[in-house]
């Protein structure tokens, strides 16, 4: 009996996504009581953990940097679906949801995940080592996309308010797609070696040498279960979002906090996977996950909401305010100085985390 129980427990990554999907089906469209909120929270946590497990299985099968790309793309595609759905339901009051969520994703990934992973990696190995060529290329693309999509709308004059005119929005969407496509081609084809993990001794880690990779059948099974888990994560996040909005309103907090909470929930699987990689002396994998997620968030969300704005009611406000532009500028400057040496100490990790802390404090109390 004990052996059977242990075998059952070991299979949790298989049945947890299914249970979370059932949880989603039972609570979709329901008004949540306190008990249902707890049920949804448990399902959300289980789906996040199982998503991380299956993403790691796929990453082990396909190797880096493809594994990081799979998780970033999967999470972002479903994040886009969540944003568009909430915008369709929210009308004018959700006109800034895409901006708030994308900017929150940029700050969480470029400061939160990056800072935490640099801190974890450097505390365990005295110094966190990564490839400055690949990391610098990724960070430069993130900074460019953030500037084009989130800063320029504040200063354009064709349309009143911090938003693009239709031709400007088309350009921003196409630019986002082109830059993201170029990055994916660089990461996976032309300069794949720039994105491989590097040990503290400067040796490139060949992930195929450590353990036997899972079979193609197991990897395909994990891919399907990863999709189910991510659908459950975003679906349950949507189910609980009215409760979050009510709590934010009751607490007298700014509406932009909703975008922060959405980004935190959606990015949780990648955050856990990134920290695990940093603990295993694979800081480059952590940075691939963080910056890849930031880039995918902008590169896919902006084109998607540009298309959705054709039928959505209300304006699409993308331009950041002065406070957030200052934080973005600091993030770009500090991130550039962090990337250039290819090595980081706990100081760099702490600086990035302090920027995330400033963002959260100012989001709560503008």
From TrEMBL:
Domain Sodium/calcium exchanger membrane region: start-end pairs: 33-188, 222-363
Q: Does the keyword RNA-binding apply?
A: no
Please report the name of this protein according to its UniProt entry: Ionic transporter y4hA
Question: Could you list the residue ranges that cross the membrane?
Answer: 12-28, 34-54, 66-87, 102-123, 135-156, 168-186, 218-240, 246-268, 289-312, 318-340
> What broad taxonomic lineage does this protein's source fall under?
Bacteria, Bacillati, Actinomycetota, Actinomycetes, Kitasatosporales
Q: Which InterPro entries match?
A: Alkaline_pH_Ca-Antiporter, NaCa_Exmemb
What's one Pfam family the UniProt record gives for this protein?
Answer: Na_Ca_ex
Keyword Membrane in the entry? The reply is: yes
An example Gene Ontology molecular-function term: sodium:proton antiporter activity
The way this protein sits in the membrane is described as: Multi-pass membrane protein
| Species for this entry | Streptomyces morookaense (Streptoverticillium morookaense)
Q: What is its main location?
A: membrane
Entry GO CC: plasma membrane
Compartments annotated for it: namely: Membrane
- Organism domain of life: Bacteria
UniProt keyword annotations, A-Z: Membrane, Transmembrane, Transmembrane helix
């Amino acid at each position: 009996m004990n052996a059977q129980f242990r075998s059952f427990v070991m299979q949790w990554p298989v049945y947890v996504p299914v249970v979370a999907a059932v949880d989603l089906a039972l609570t979709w469209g329901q008004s949540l009581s306190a008990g249902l909120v707890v049920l949804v929270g448990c399902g959300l946590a289980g789906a996040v953990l199982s998503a991380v497990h299956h993403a790691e299985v796929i990453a082990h099968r396909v190797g880096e940097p493809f594994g990081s790309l799979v998780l970033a793309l999967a999470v972002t595609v479903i994040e886009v679906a969540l944003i568009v759905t909430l915008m369709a339901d929210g009308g004018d009051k959700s006109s800034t949801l895409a901006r708030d969520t994308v900017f929150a994703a940029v700050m969480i990934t470029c400061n939160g995940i990056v800072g935490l992973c640099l801190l974890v990696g450097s505390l365990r190995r005295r110094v966190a080592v990564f490839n400055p060529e690949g990391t610098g290329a990724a960070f430069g693309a993130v900074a460019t996309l953030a500037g084009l999509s989130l800063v320029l709308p504040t200063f354009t004059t064709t349309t009143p308010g911090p938003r693009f005119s239709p031709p400007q929005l088309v350009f921003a969407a196409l630019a986002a797609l082109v830059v993201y496509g170029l990055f994916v081609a660089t990461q996976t084809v032309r300069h794949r070696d720039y994105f491989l993990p590097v040990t503290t001794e400067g040796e490139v880690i060949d992930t195929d040498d450590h353990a036997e990779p899972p079979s193609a059948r197991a990897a395909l099974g994990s891919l399907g279960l990863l999709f189910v888990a991510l659908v459950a994560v975003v679906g349950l996040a949507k189910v609980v979002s009215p409760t979050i909005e009510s709590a934010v309103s009751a607490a007298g907090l700014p509406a932009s906090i909703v975008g922060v909470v959405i980004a935190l929930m959606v990015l949780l699987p990648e955050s856990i996977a990134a920290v695990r990689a940093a603990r295993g002396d694979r800081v480059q994998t952590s940075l691939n996950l963080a910056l890849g997620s930031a880039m995918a968030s902008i590169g896919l969300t902006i084109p998607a909401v540009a298309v959705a704005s054709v039928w959505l009611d209300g304006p699409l406000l993308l331009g950041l305010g002065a406070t957030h532009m200052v934080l973005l500028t600091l993030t770009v400057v500090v991130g550039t100085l962090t990337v250039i040496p290819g090595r980081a100490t706990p100081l760099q990790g702490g600086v990035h985390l302090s920027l995330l802390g400033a963002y959260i404090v100012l989001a709560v109390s503008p």
